[in-house]
């Protein structure tokens, strides 16, 4: 016969192991359990909060480029365009630099990407929709957004604002 103390000890150990396993499982999300990417198209990475800047002085664009598209030549079909635009900013007073990313799409390309990815919806504050690929329109839209975000004027390094 097994002593009662041994049975209670075994039950207590099983319960503790079960509770620990549940806690570890809740802290670990597998790839299959990730939220449906169709609900989240964009997230700005490495973007500091506006209040983290020491001053509200002018910001300078030191560099900008697309992930895949050549900025000058653009896509083969300007009405079917989707890419991620990276804009590197520098705050003059503190010397702080960082990179913002904005997804840029035409309606046709956005519809195509949503169909390819089987997405039912798209949401994001870092999404710029343009009628067709036009470098100046894209830069104006992106810089307007960054000026609102950081409550500061955005200029190209060594140049004035791109506002016409």
Number of domains: 1
Count of helical stretches: 3
| Morphology call | elongated
Largest sheet: 5 strands, mixed
Brief summary:
With 164 residues, the protein is of the alpha/beta class.
How would you summarize the topology of this molecule?
Blueprint: H1 4-27, E1 59-66, E2 82-91, E3 97-105, H2 107-117, E4 127-129, H3 135-150, E5 154-156
Parallel strand pairs: 1-5, 3-4
Antiparallel strand pairs: 1-2, 2-3
What report would you give on this structure?
The longest helix has 24 residues, at 4-27. The chain has one domain (35-156). Strands 4-3-2-1-5 form a five-stranded mixed beta sheet. Helix content is 31%, strand content 20%. The chain is an alpha/beta fold. The protein is elongated. The model is unreliable at 29-55 and 159-164 (pLDDT under 50).
């Amino acid at each position: 016969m097994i002593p009662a103390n041994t049975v209670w000890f075994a039950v207590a150990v099983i319960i503790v192991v079960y509770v620990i396993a549940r806690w570890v499982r809740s802290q670990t999300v597998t790839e299959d359990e990730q939220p449906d990417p169709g609900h989240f198209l964009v997230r700005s990475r490495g973007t500091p909060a506006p209040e983290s800047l020491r001053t509200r002085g002018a910001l300078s664009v030191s560099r900008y480029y697309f992930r895949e598209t050549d900025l000058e030549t653009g896509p083969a079909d300007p009405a079917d365009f989707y890419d991620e635009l990276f804009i590197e900013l520098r705050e003059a007073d503190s010397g702080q630099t960082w990179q913002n990313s904005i997804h840029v799409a035409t309606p046709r390309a956005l519809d195509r990407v949503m169909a390819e990815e089987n997405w039912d919806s798209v949401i994001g504050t870092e999404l710029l929709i343009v009628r067709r690929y036009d470098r100046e329109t894209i830069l104006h839209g992106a810089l307007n957004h960054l000026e609102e975000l950081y409550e500061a004027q955005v200029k190209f390094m060594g140049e004035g604002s791109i506002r016409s």
